[in-house]
């Protein structure tokens, strides 16, 4: 009998979905959002970001959010960190995973994080070592892996080199992010091959935005290549405050529809996520970009 295909959808709505919205949600609303995701079946959630709240006010109160999230067996909460101070905050707050963003463009890295690529790679080495000592897995997300809004095409060799450095420091996972939504399936295939060669044995994850309507095609291409973890955001909200014209993540509910209809199981209730996307849109004062909440499932 053929083995059942399974994909883990990492819910990034509470962090990447909210960080670019005009309306700032209170920690209690963000806790309620996370609880709805857990109730729907999400088991990996990027819950918070330990960054300077003056630069990203939408992510203020990370410690308060982490103190209020439902703690259930099998549910893992990730926190984004950019430096040792962020790591210390994340560890004190009790995250289950640490996600470090390494940007494949100097211009974007300086604008987004105030550090060059080389400086962030050095910081990553220290963060990875400290997280390992604390017994918390640390992974890397390579931002603008498909293209940069300031420097143009991202050389795939650079992405592979960053992956090699992440692997050398013990990253438990490497994610490739199409931060501005310029990627196409051919790039997914190329980067998957390059990163698997550069970081043998390290699980690969993808993070797609649907800016140019290629996000779902890219996600399904990754699944066809054997990638078993994909990022998505309930409602399809999101974007980066430091990337011009950045739009939302692929929507969790729309991705679930494509996966489930393709015979790929996720363990997540598609209808419950669609309800959450609509609920979140009401909180944010705007319609959710996701389509499933409007069209409904099939059959």
TrEMBL record:
Its EC number is 4.1.3.4. The lineage of its organism: Bacteria, Bacillati, Actinomycetota, Actinomycetes, Streptosporangiales. GO terms for molecular function: hydroxymethylglutaryl-CoA lyase activity; metal ion binding. Keywords: Lyase, Metal-binding. InterPro entries: Aldolase_TIM, HMGL, PYR_CT. Pfam families: HMGL-like. The keyword Translocase does not apply. Residues 7-274 form the Pyruvate carboxyltransferase domain. Transmembrane segments: none annotated. Belongs to the HMG-CoA lyase family. This is Hydroxymethylglutaryl-CoA lyase. SUPFAM superfamilies: Aldolase. GO terms for biological process: ketone body biosynthetic process; L-leucine catabolic process. NCBIfam families: PRK05692.1. It is an enzyme of class 4 (lyase).
């Amino acid at each position: 009998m053929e083995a059942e295909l399974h994909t883990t959808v990492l819910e990034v709505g509470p962090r990447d979905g909210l960080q670019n919205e005009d309306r700032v949600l209170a920690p209690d609303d963000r806790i309620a959002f996370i609880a709805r995701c857990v109730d729907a079946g999400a088991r990996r959630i990027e819950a918070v970001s330990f960054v300077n709240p003056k630069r990203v006010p939408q992510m203020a109160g990370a410690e308060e959010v982490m103190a209020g999230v439902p703690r259930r067996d099998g549910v893992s909460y990730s926190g984004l960190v950019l430096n040792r101070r962020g790591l210390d905050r994340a560890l004190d707050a009790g995250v289950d995973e640490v996600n470090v963003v390494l940007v494949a463009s100097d211009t974007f890295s300086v604008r987004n994080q105030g550090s060059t690529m080389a400086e962030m790679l050095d910081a990553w080495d220290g963060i990875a070592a400290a997280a390992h000592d604390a017994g918390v897995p640390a992974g890397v997300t390579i931002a603008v892996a498909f293209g940069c809004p300031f420097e143009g095409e991202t050389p795939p060799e650079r992405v592979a080199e960053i992956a090699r450095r992440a692997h050398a420091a013990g990253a438990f996972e490497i994610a490739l992010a199409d931060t501005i939504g310029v990627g196409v399936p051919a790039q997914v295939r190329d980067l998957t091959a390059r990163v698997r060669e550069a970081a043998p044995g390290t699980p690969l994850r993808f993070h797609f935005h649907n800016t140019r309507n290629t996000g779902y095609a890219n996600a399904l291409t990754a699944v066809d290549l054997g990638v078993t973890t994909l990022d998505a955001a309930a409602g399809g909200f999101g974007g980066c405050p430091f990337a011009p014209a950045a739009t939302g993540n692929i929507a969790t509910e729309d991705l679930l529809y494509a996966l489930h209809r393709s015979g790929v199981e996720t363990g997540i209730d598609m209808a419950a996520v669609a309800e959450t996307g609509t609920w979140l849109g009401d909180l944010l004062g705007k319609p959710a970009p996701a389509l499933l909440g409007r069209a409904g499932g099939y059959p």
